[in-house]
Amino acid sequence: MSRSAINAGPGRVLVFLYGLFAVAAGARAGVQIGTSFRDAPLAYLLSAFAALVYLVATIGFVLGSRAGRQLAIGCLAVELVGVLVVGTLSLVDREAFPDETVWSVFGQGYGFVPLALPILGLLWLRNTPADATPSEASSGGEPDQPTAR
Amino acid sequence: MWTPLAISVMVGSLGLGAWCLASGARGRYLNQTQYSGLLALSLLVLVQSIVAAVRLIAGERPVELPTFVGYLLTTALFLPAGVSLARMEPTRWGSIIAGGAAITVAVLTLRSLQVWTPLR
Questions:
Q1: Cβ atoms A19, B74 nearer than 8 A
Q2: Nearest-angstrom CA–CA distance, A50 and A43
Q3: What digits encode the pLDDT tens for the residues A29-38?
Q4: Do A13 and B100 touch (CB under 8 A)?
Q5: Which has fewest Cβ within 10 Å: A13, A62, B59, B79?
Q6: What is the pLDDT of residues A100-135, one digit of tens each?
């Protein structure tokens, strides 16, 4: 198995959560854009964008390769900025966000998981070896045993 | 939707989900009972989806049809997908994935019920 560390153990929980949010945000965007796009085009396009970011992050985690890792890091950074900016704007300027998106009020509608997810994800990626080919991972690059937490 | 079945699914998935999460927290993977329970729950969800599909075909219309269909498809596929992923990870993290999937099914079922029932 060429499985590297980022998609095993706690990483597989991240795969699950990112997959879940890709589906949740994607379905929401699909319904919103399909039924009432004119009501709040900005919010709905934002939902679609968030769904895309979650989807690409999921793919990055599943791949688990060096490129997948880079992909995941990029997506998580975009996501963190997105949830912070949209979260703040949705509080400051409610007019601009007449309808909810996954990132509104820092993801309140989803139990603030959208805010926690990129932070946990980036912390996890920081704890895994950057080049996690199995041979190198066994030569001391193995992440700390997750049972510690 | 058939409300008694929906309530059974919600109660069952919350209980089973909490149990799986507890196993994960104690560092254990799913046992056979939990695994069988997840399969039984998947079947109940499937039955619920079939009931809802039949009622839709028969002409009943939920308050928000597109949203409802979205929930219907997601709910039916969610637990099998989550359990498959959990099986790829036979550690405490697999239990956490299964528990998370079961609790998500409870939420999805509640939301389905909300968009199905006409507001009075």
A1: no
A2: 10
A3: 888 888 888 8
A4: yes
A5: B59
A6: 788 888 888 888 889 999 999 999 998 887 765 544
Contact A118, A106 (CB under 8 A): no
Q: Say if residue B15 is exposed, middle or buried (CB neighbours under 10 Å; 0-12, 13-18, 19+).
A: middle
Distance (Å, whole) CA A143 – CA B42:
35
Tally A–B CB contacts below 8 A: 39
pTM of the predicted model, to two decimals?
0.83
| Residue from the list B70, B96, B100 with its beta carbon closest to the beta carbon of A27 | B70
Give the residue from B59, B61, B72, B62 showing the smallest Cα distance to B109.
B72
As a whole number of angstroms, the distance between CA A73 and CA A15 comes to 13
Question: In a 3-state reduction of DSSP, which class is residue B7?
Answer: helix
Instruction: Give B103 to chain A, closest Cα distance, Å.
Output: 12
- Pair B115, B6: CB distance under 8 Å: no
Q: Which residues of chain B have a pLDDT value below 70?
A: 118-120
For chain B, say whether A111 makes contact (Cβ under 8 Å): no
- Residues sharing a CB contact under 8 Å with residue A134, sequence separation 6 or more, in sequence order: A1, A2, A3, A4
Nearest chain A residue to B108, by CA? A24
Q: How far is residue B94's CA from residue B16's CA, in Å, rounded to a whole number?
A: 14
Structure tokens at A2: 């060429």
| Amino acid letter, residue B109 | T
List, for residues A9-66, the tens digit of each pLDDT value. 889 999 999 999 998 888 888 888 888 888 778 888 888 999 999 999 999 999 988 8
pLDDT of residue A43: 81
How many residues are there in chain B? 120
Q: How far apart are CA A107 and CA A149, in angstroms?
A: 25
